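Side project, low priority. Logging it here so it doesn't get lost.
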Amino acid sequence: MPRLQAALILFWPLLAADFSGQRAFEQVRKAVEMGPRPSGSAAIQKLQTHIHTELRGCRCEVTDDDFVGHTPDGDVPMKNILARFAGSGDGVVVVSGHYDTKRMAGFLGANDGGSSTGVLLELARVLAGAQRKSTVIVVWLDGEEAVRTWSDADSLYGSRHLAARWQSEGVIPQIRALVNVDMIGDKQLDILEEGNSNPSLRNKIWAIAAELGYSRSFLNTGSPMDDDHLPFLERGVPAVDLIDFNYGPANRYWHSTEDTLDKLSPGSLEVVGRVLVELLRRI
């Protein structure tokens, strides 16, 4: 029986319904309870340990991508965490999101840094042992936030580093799609039609959302935004950014001490997670 059970697990299909918004929310809660988590801090090191602990049971290859972010305030040690779920065929699909928080007193980043952390951890749980054609790499990116003021040089440290590394290693041409998630836990979920994103991949995601009954949360309006998908887009990767940049009245919760757990909903996390799972099933 154990051998039969193992075989069933190995070939169990990837199902959107397996993604639990409540489990993702609990992961966000654990991250928030660690306090502010800017790059290089003791709190983010604690979160890195937690991510590693959670991934131990997920039947994946985990790699730390350590590097130094050259910031306006000096060099900061940073770490991307990669979980590779091998597929049976060719090609790679990447799902990414940042897990650092803005360097700001009292900023807990429940949505901005916390929601992507939780969704990716729950996605890894769902991916464990599931059948898939493409290899899936789930990436927790460090250093998304600017240390001082957002600029090309002071932002996106982790994604810029990883995109350059993958370019030199020959991984970039293998990537069939990259989906970045950011600020996707708001109770009033409004995912923008982000203008820099690859139109074909974005349309596929929006069609899946409609099929699953989530059209209300995926808007047909938006504008170009800078986020962790850009360094990959610049290298020719079909990439999409799923982001809700309408967080509270006049977006006032964004980068404020009001970005707290009570503003988030397990239901919103589940909407995004189930769309991601269905996308991965079809690619």
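Brief comment: The helical segments are 2-10, 21-32, 42-55, 114-127, 157-169, 199-211, 230-233, 266-282.
Revisit when time allows.
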